[in-house]
Amino acid sequence: MDDVVVELTSTGTFAIAAFGAVFCLMQTKYSRINRSFAAFLAAVAMNNLPDAFRQLIDATPTLHGPAIDIAVWPSNFLLGPLFWIYVFILTSPEQKRPTRLWRHFVLPCLALLAALPVLAASPDVSTALMSDQGEVDTAWTLALMVWVGVLQLAVYPQIALYLVLIIRRLSRFRQKLRDVYASTERHELRWIYVIGGLGALFWLTQAGLLFVAFDTTDTETPAAFLIFASLAGFALVSATVLWGLRQRPPLVPDVEDPNPPEPPASETTKKYEKSALSDEASQRLGRKLRAAMEIDHLHRDPNLSLWALARHTGASSNYISQTLNEQIGESFFDFVNGYRVAEAKTLLATTDKSVLTITYDVGFNARSSFYNAFKRIAGQTPSSYRKTMSQRDGLDDSKS
Predict the structure, then answer these.
(1) Can you say how many angstroms the Cα of residue 327 is from the centroid of all Cα atoms in its chain?
(2) CA–CA dist 48, 209 (Å, integer)
């Protein structure tokens, strides 16, 4: 029964990954992101191919199971690098690939070099290398077994390393979002954190399977453990495909504004050295930006972006970014949310509207975001601020 469940989940994982890869390759927009995601899904499909068609392989005399296993084995080492490359491109304003790309494919190449002599060997040798059957009777076979075993162990720290790299990349990406969006919740790629969590869970299950495989007592892997590992892999791939196919690159400018945003303030000094924006023009633009908030109330738009502000003011998004960073000294996120909190303070002090109503009135799209921004700027929660003001001015503080 456990073999049936494992095969069914592997077949489903293979089908979903293959469909996602083909779908991505058919997309013409954001082609570099779609191609990188398609490469990752193709590696996932290849990785699940032997288990998905195990009965067919075993029932076909001309097919040698261990040889097929070793043929797709290098795909294990592609999962971490390819997903990292996808995340890197997705979080890059220009959809750039990582530098020195070759470093990420050293282990896959080593695995391929190890697989080739195994494939060229006799079926008895490949069976001895890829299973606990057969005998190792030559020094060459023993050397291959050691080499394959070392590489099988290397995949686990490799995946862990790429999970750490992805988390670091997303942390920096969240900071970059503040230069582009006034509300970042919709663009923070939280689904990748979910994928990372599922990936860590899957990593642990696979490590457990490896531990059982090296158990000298020669006990069989529990059926429940195999089923759990298989279902964890299926859930991981399904969630990745579901969210990945719907993902739009957050830092790519709107079609109407071809000018990409500048990096965060800490990186701008060198970028702005050759800017044509004079100090006088920057001051004028700063006044226009403040007028857009104080008179036109653009901060009330929960989906306000740097590019929308650029269209409203008629200025380049690069110039707006430079003015915010150099003259005003704030990120786009802090600039807009400062006006939102200022208006919220007025409404809390002069009206009996509920805090939730005020949250949406001033432009926040989530109560948690409003509370965090308000407490950071005002030093207290909205409810505490209203209570303080009502005690001072005798206003009704019943609404919270």
Answers:
(1) 33
(2) 16
b/e per residue, 63-96, with b = 16+ CB within 10 A?
ebbbbbbbbbbbbbbbbbbbbbbbbbbbbbbebe
CATH 1.20.1070.10 residue ranges for the chain = 2-244
Average pLDDT of the residues in 98-125: 83
Residue 117 near residue 144 (C-beta atoms within 8 A): yes
Q: How far apart are CA 104 and CA 82, in angstroms?
A: 8
- For residue 224, the one-letter residue type is A
- Summarize the confidence of residues 252-263 as an average pLDDT: 53
Query: Considering Cα of 34, then 35, then 38, then 43, what sign does the dihedral take?
Result: negative
CATH class of 265-393: mainly alpha
CA–CA separation, 45 vs 25, rounded Å? 15
CA dist., res. 272 & res. 308, Å (int) = 22
Residue 103 · residue 40 · CB < 8 Å:
no
Amino acid at 372: N
Burial class for 112, CB neighbours closer than 10 Å (0-12, 13-18, 19+): middle
Compare 131 and 363 and report the one with higher pLDDT.
Answer: 363
Q: Which residues contact 232 (CB under 8 A, 6 or more apart)?
A: 198, 201, 202, 205
pLDDT value of position 268: 44
Average pLDDT, the chain: 82
CB within 8 A of 274, min separation 6: which ones?
none
d(CA 240, CA 198): 10
Q: Over the stretch 164-189, which tens digit does the pLDDT of each residue have?
A: 999 999 999 988 899 899 998 888 88
CATH fold of 2-244, please? Rhopdopsin 7-helix transmembrane proteins (1.20.1070)
Backbone angles phi, psi at 74, to 5 degrees: -60, -20
Other Cβ atoms within 10 Å of 307 Cβ, number: 21
